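Write out the bound-state structure for zinc ion.
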Amino acid sequence: MLDPKAQEEVRIKALEYFKKAGIVLSKEERDKGLEIFDYNTGDFFEIGTVIVTFINTERYCGRFIVFFPGQCCAEHWHPDVDVNTGKEETFRVIYGQAFAYGEGRPTKDIRAKIPKGREKYYTSRCETILNPGDQYTIKLNEKHWWQAGPEGVVALEVSSPARDKYDLCTDNTLKVEIY
Ligand code: ZN
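---
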């Protein structure tokens, strides 16, 4: 877990990326709206992300997402919760380059660098390379993950409701901590 000083540094750094992407956040979002998603692996800059959720209702969700250079998320999926089906999400790149992975025919030499020793937890290897203006949709219950290229990535995500605490990771020892 990042200590409060490190959390603050991450938030300041993420704001620079929003600026580079030309995304204007409200003062409230800048002050209190940046959520740090940490998987508690001990290296946030390897596996983690920063998210601003500007709407999340019972029916839909809208977010901006920052990945720092080379940073990825854990491979995960969004299961059905009670009567609600899992989350379907579309990720659209605004700034930088992202490597997106979903289920399907595996790409031979993927561009992403899987965190060392964690190869077995990144099973979806069907690659799509996304530049600004490109978007990618994850189907229900599909295992997926992303990694930022060398410039980092800022993306817009639109989806059905986000219920992050129910998300499941391929490495089931990982837990999403949000702060
Ligand atoms: Zn997801």
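---
The mean pLDDT is 95.
Helices lie at 4-20, 27-33.
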